[in-house]
Amino acid sequence: MPDAPEPVLILTGPPGVGKTSAAVLLADRFPRAVHLESDRFFSFIRGGFVEPWRPESQQQNELVMRLVGEAAAGYARAGFFTIVDGIVIPRWFLAPLREILAAAGLQASYAVLRVPLAACAARIEEREGEGVSDQEAIARIWAQFADLGAFERHAIDVEGRTPEQVAASLAELLAAGRLAL
């Protein structure tokens, strides 16, 4: 196991932007890699689940992000390059995830994929029964990534790019340290 594990990459953006496709391809570039889909952690909740985009879901969302962070930290400490794929909005979800990783002594990187809202909506319509399907909720989530403030340097426009091209760009940006938090 290396002395300093690879950074944990938090790969985010609105629904339909291509996070999962890029994450799978990026993970495949490394001999030891983990792809954690944070959305799956929400599906573990069987009773008392609140859709994560609703205002009353704040406590649930913070808990889930902390659990995702603990899982990511465990894999990274074991020497795996770890990608956390999910909707990690800076104002809501980034802080609890970042706190867990920092407490574990791990470096985190953050990448926000962007495409126009219409492209996200079209991709989501192509999916069958997966994820967020409420167009109003999608638009609200998309808007959360439109102005990232201090995190703007982590935004990557991926419109018209293939998942392979996005994964290659992410690998280059990680190697250059340009996505570090």
Key descriptive features of the protein:
181 residues; alpha/beta; Rossmann fold; 5-stranded parallel sheet; 7 helices; globular; disordered N terminus
Summarize the structure.
The chain is of the alpha/beta class and 181 residues long.
Task: Describe what you observe in this structure.
The protein has 181 residues and is of the alpha/beta class. The chain has a single domain, classed as 3-Layer(aba) Sandwich (Rossmann fold). It contains 7 helices and 5 strands. The chain has helices at 19-27, 38-43, 58-77, 90-103, 117-126, 135-144, 163-175; strands at residues 8-12, 33-37, 81-85, 108-114, 155-157. It is globular and about 40 Å long.
Give the CATH superfamily.
P-loop containing nucleotide triphosphate hydrolases
Biggest β-sheet description? 5 strands, parallel
Low-confidence stretches: 1-5
Q: State the share of residues found in helices, binned by percent.
A: 40-55%
- Spatial strand sequence of the major β-sheet: 2-3-1-4-5
Distance between the termini: 23 Å
Q: What's the gyration radius in Å?
A: 15 Å
In DSSP terms (H or I, runs of 4 or more residues), the helix count works out at: 7
N-to-C order of helices and strands? EHEHHEHEHHEH
The count of DSSP E runs of length 2 or more, i.e. the number of strands, is 5
**Shape assignment:** globular
What CATH architecture would you give?
A: 3-Layer(aba) Sandwich
Structural class: alpha/beta
CATH level 1 name: Alpha Beta
Question: What fraction of residues sit in β-strands?
Answer: 5-15%
In the residues, how many domains can be counted? 1
